TrEMBL record:
Domain of life according to the entry: Eukaryota
Cofactors demanded by this protein: heme
Binding annotation for heme: 532
Keyword terms of this UniProt record: Heme, Iron, Membrane, Metal-binding, Monooxygenase, Oxidoreductase, Transmembrane, Transmembrane helix
Stated name of the protein: Cytochrome P450
Lineage: Eukaryota, Fungi, Dikarya, Ascomycota, Pezizomycotina
Family: Belongs to the cytochrome P450 family.
Region (Disordered): 488-510
Comp. bias regions, Basic and acidic residues: 497-508
Presence of the UniProt keyword Endoplasmic reticulum in the record: no
Species name: Clonostachys byssicola
PANTHER family for the chain: 24-HYDROXYCHOLESTEROL 7-ALPHA-HYDROXYLASE, CYTOCHROME P450 FAMILY 7
One Pfam short name: p450
Transmembrane segments annotated in the record for this chain: 6-24, 31-51
GO MF entries: heme binding; iron ion binding; oxidoreductase activity, acting on paired donors, with incorporation or reduction of molecular oxygen; steroid hydroxylase activity
Amino acid sequence: MKSQGLAAIVMISQFLWIPVAIYLSLLRGHGILLAIGMPLVVQSLLSYAIAIRRWHAVNNLISQSKDETHLPPQYPSLVPYVGSALSFVWDNAGFLRQATRYGGRLISSRISFLGFEIFAFQDRQTVAKVWKQTSLSSPISIFVYAMKYFFEIPENVLSVYRADTSGPFPKPHKDTNISPQARVDHITHYGFLQALSGPGWLPTTKRCMNALVSRLEDKGLSEEWTEFEDMSEFFKEWVGASLIESLFGPSLLRINPTFVKNIWVFDEGIPWLARGVPSFLRPSIYKARRAAIAQIRNWYLYAREHFDESYISSDGDGDPFWGSWLMRYRQKNLLPAEKHNDEVLSKLDLGLAWGVVGNTTPTSTLFAFHIFKDPTLLSRVREEIETSFGNQDLLDINPSELIKQPLLSSAYAEILRLFIDVFFMVTSAHKDVPLGSYHLPKGRIALINSGISHKDDSFWNTRKGEHPVTSFWAERFLIDPSDPLSGPVAPGVYKPPSREEPDRDDGGKAPYFSLKGTEGSWFPYGGGHSICPGRVLAKSAVLFVSVLLARDYDIEPLVERIETTNWRCGLGAEQIKHAIPFRIRKRRR
């Protein structure tokens, strides 16, 4: 009860300026205005006090009634209609942490937002159930938001996406009657699934590996130290360009040499676009976006003029003009979709290009920094690489084996846990959806934030406080069969089966990578049927970058630690606050 009383005091204290303002206004002779406004102020304060009381009552009720399904409790707000909009816009990270925590645990709540009601699901039981619901598998709601505010897709095209309730699966939902040309959800999802997680993943990864090796060689690094001002900028130019080339091919970057630069200027402006900031306040963002879109359309003309089926590589995927099966597929299937044309597709392809580099590139930077900053970890990573791949040529490494390396996989999962903060938006177009203690009504929007769950100190294993949730611990996702304090989940929260790891050559004695038990608490890619199809390509690229650097190069970061900000909360990788000077050289062998 003490914590509940303290929470109420904190909520009310935010509005103590109101009676002070009333008193000062009286001193200045504004009595007439106050006579009119006083009843409204008093009514708002009383309503707010009642809402706080109800907030505590409903949370206590839900915690005690395990077998009933409820709507999440309504989070108190002072001003009708406006609700929590101002708090969310001003500090969305801090506001959501407050609105989804009660009594020291993560909860779910309903948030009033400019006349709308948003369901914020954060307790891990509900989140895990969300991922299992096929009726919540369409990402259309978040797509529409991004297309409208980030990429300026016209309203007549947005209406096609809003109207598509057929779902992402090959067979349309039984309650819809959408024409094949208007099934944009399925057309988009199928292409991504085939290219990034299905048969296109391996050839795309191989192209990315080749680009990473050749672009790093082009920098002419030697066995003598070379200093650079910022690791982030180094990786943007190197890793970002390699990722773009792996999907879009070499022609896009050859005929548009400033494309990667435009992408990163646009990326820096995403938080402003998400907040609806107009062009006259941030003209450089809009200029870079227009330039990148024009460059993509210029590439369309070039590729159409020069491409022929005979140019498709022996793997059936790559080609020098369109770059990959995915881009040819989008020209063939998404371009003819209802209300689509070159202008629309070029904006959607800008979204694809940004999606490819926007999180994977900073993740590569953060991953490399943490490996090379810790000599012990670097030594262990090099040992794992040597044990698994020996003197094998880097380009002959099997990506399927690369992504199975336990220490690298654990460190990668930890980087995502610590630095990836994404909003996932779900909605059900056809029916109410039961989610254990709660339910999501038909047509309502639910928001889930990975950053909050990723730093839930009541869930994650800290090894008795030795590794706080706010710190990087490369071994957090490793389970050592001989160590009961190992593993990602705090002891007592999740009890693993007696033997959950697969049979291994080491007889089951070595530590192994595991995500078991984290389904509702670790979701940097989302989950279930709506999980990001590019997750395997992203992991392959980040791990290959680390293998390439750790095996063939020495790197010395010239700062002790990295600071990040909440400015990009909900938009992916946290923003690195300062430049990261470093020096690099080829390893002497």
